[in-house]
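Folding Task

Wanted — backbone structure
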Amino acid sequence: MLDQFAQFFGLHSGADVLWLTIGFGGQFLFASRFFVQLFYSERAGKSVMPIAFWYFSLGGGLITTIYALHLGHSGLPFLMGQVGGLVVYVRNLMLIFKEKARAKAEIPPAA
């Protein structure tokens, strides 16, 4: 059965299995962001975008980008789909940290 799986996916070495695992791992992490967002929204009783969403997006996007680079020219569609998103994820995290720093600076010290 394992041989059939390897043959179906064109896996010829342990490195092939590792790269396939990395690719699936990146996609799993990337897709998990929606479940994280759903969990926080259900808990809040309204639609919210938790910071964890952006971390899952960034982590999954980076891993998928690395996998796409490994694939070479055949990974170009993956690569093109991820690069723009990575910019958005990083920028959103920067804005979140900037807002937290601003809010922290506005809080007067406890008396």
